[in-house]
Amino acid sequence: MTSPGTKKGFVTGEGSEKNVSGNLGKVSFSGDLNDSGSSSRSSGGEGGTFECSGWVYHLGVNKIGHEYCNLRFLFIRGKYVEMYKRDPHENPEIKPIRRGVIGPTMMVEELGRRKVNHGDVYVIRFYNRLDESKKGEIACATAGEALKWVEAFEEAKQQAEYALSRGGSTRTKLSMEANINLEGHRPRVRRYAYGLKKLIRIGQGPETLLRQSSTLVNDVRGDGFYEGGDNGDAIEAHQWKCVRTINGVRIFEDVANFKAGRGVLVKAVAVVEASADSVFEVLLNIDKQQRYEWDAVTGDSEKIDSYEGHYDVIYCVYDPKYLSRWQSKRDFIFSRQWVRGQDGTYTILQFPAVHKKRPPKSGYKRTDITPSTWEIRSLKKRSDAETPSCLVTHMLEIHSKRWCKWKRTSYSKFEKTIPYALLLQVAGLKEYIGANPAFKYETSATVIQSKLPDVCNGEYVDEELEEQFYDATDSSSDEEESDEDDEEQDNKEIKVKLKNVSWAIASLSLKRPKAPGASNVLDASVDPVSIDPSQFQGSLRKGNGDKDSNCWNSPSGMGFMIRGKTYLKDNAKVMGGDPLLTLVSVDWFKVDKAEDNIALHPKCLVQSDPGKKLPFILVINLQVPAKPNYCLVLYYAADRPVSKSSSLGKFVDGSDSYRDARFKLIPSIVQGYWMVKRAVGTKACLLGKAVTCKYLRQDNFLEIDVDIGSSAVARSVIGLVLGYVTSLIVDLAILIEGKEETDLPEYILGTVRLNRIELDSAVSLEV
């Protein structure tokens, strides 16, 4: 029997087969990573050139239409990237087969899990937002490695933006935006001394790409940046009480708004001594032999379908002898949908499902598995030598009176139910990983000094033309053609009432002024104008309280936690104050396709006479993918002009890369189905790094077009939200992330509360 960390027969190229195993190395970024998972180090400063390298799969289609998956060594230094057939550190004389620059217009998208030949990999797509014909794909063995590469490319984009901001020749600037002939020559390279830099190594060899989860390592930096506790950036109305501890696993119930005879939200929580990446891979792996060692419910599983890399459908057979009250064999189908937050936290949603490939069959009784969620969050490490660990939470809603009896008396019949078996999956997972040392111990970080004689320490300057990185993943190269080497719970769910939030806010016992920390954001030398909301009427009406439906309101920022003045020193967050900007109107449009530049529409609020008199308007256009598509447009007004030297002023007039790195949104499902709450979460998200954002700065406004459909993960989550939208109350807070001490404390730009929106109420946008 093969070890759990070895994958046999993974085809890496046409007609070739490799059977290898190895250990993954840890990546350690030199900058501080924040709560959104982004680097807070200014890019491109002196001594700050970013470098990393590692093995990846290069995916594509050759000239005769055959798909290939070739093993390649990828090297990023600053804004430059190279692709090799072999590791250049072990083969100093080798020449790169591809070389190019990472321009500011390059977009990076994580496509999720995909089966390539005989193995599952995690795919990253690159494309030029100005010309999507320029694109390419690479793949990694784990979701953690894929995230590292995404972060590396985002850092390189910031290097490119910094290089542009420093000046340089006009020809160089233009060449970074030029359309490149992907079949053209490779440019000559001139080396300039640029100082000895540290090299960040992702992985330790080509064999590591074929390892399964037993050798995965922690994605957290050496100094650790994940904070303790499971609080997000929005205050939730949950009161978790531990009711029992079983085999080192704590069992909690949510006692807020609990009513006898109704469903109760329950979770099992345990600390597992392995990285979040490792635990995630174990949970997703449906290999029977591995599953038998820890999972008493879904051991006999089969994947019958998958979608967009973040969603699959599983068919399971269950032996009735383990639940004696069952008299016949049982089977069930459930779907799994997973997302990885910008802070590295994994969330897996499991729903009962049906599928045409597995209709009910004779001899088996089809049952619905209880909906549940998994959350896997890395814990902070005190030192590099400490074993990585994560907090694993399995949550489900139990609609059984036996639960109350079991809490008091260990009611034995409850222990024969599927919900109980699901709760104990956490204990099985913890023990299984504890019994396999390969999950617990990681190799040390590989941080080496550059030592290539001609190219490692150089900055590349193209004497004729700088090629875009898409050249590095294009399929047109001759060298790439071959390679030598339960039913829906709406009517039963626990309604978390809005008044329950009051206990959380009151517990902070703080009364905050309007937009604390924003005293110098608006120009105090100019007299404020009077903003009369009655002059601005959008297609979605303003509500008359939280019991109203299909409307909007603007709540205070007290339900959100934002970075305080000392955040860079102690990670302390504070409760938000009232928004700086006034939400004056909301439009709810239905459109055939995503519409940009709404502010330029002649009937838009911005183009009205009252709108033109406002000193500044921030327009947020949330483009919702569906059939039809929708646009939720938020209009925030300032009563004074924006100060050019403030963080908002720098954002409004800054570059797209600057904006992408700072435009932050905090979501909160105040009322609604608990599964939707877990899917959306409450952690802050840098929208510019999660989805494609476009910016339009004209006259007295800035419009931000947020294309939610540009990310497979975002499409998946928004699809779930739309299914329950008429029962949801959603709060959103918009702010600019404070990366430097001068930008702290953060302040909330604007908020919106969306009360049970009806899709049919959207109006057509007249073109």
Q: Would you kindly provide a written description of the structure presented here, covering whatever features stand out?
A:
A hairpin with a 2-residue loop joins strand 4 (67-77) and strand 5. The strands form seven sheets. Strands 12, 13, 14, 15, 16, 17, 18, 19, 20 and 21 form a ten-stranded mixed beta sheet that branches. Strands 3, 4, 5, 6, 7, 8, 9, 11 and 22 form a nine-stranded mixed beta sheet that branches. Helices cover 16% and strands 31% of the residues. 47% of the residues are buried. The longest helix has 23 residues, at 143-165. By secondary structure, the protein is an alpha+beta fold.
Attribute tags:
767 residues; alpha+beta; ten-stranded mixed β-sheet; nine-stranded mixed β-sheet; 16 helices; 36 strands; disordered N terminus
Main sheet, how many strands, which sense, barrel? 10 strands, mixed
- Total count of helical runs of at least 4 residues: 16
Q: What is the general shape? A: globular
The SS-based structural class is: alpha+beta
Topology, number of strands: 36
Tell me roughly what share of residues is in helical segments. 10-25%
Task: Give start-end ranges of low-pLDDT stretches.
Answer: 1-47, 169-199, 207-230, 443-466, 471-513
Strand residue content = 25-35%
Whole-number average pLDDT?
Answer: 76
CA gyration radius, whole angstroms: 27 Å
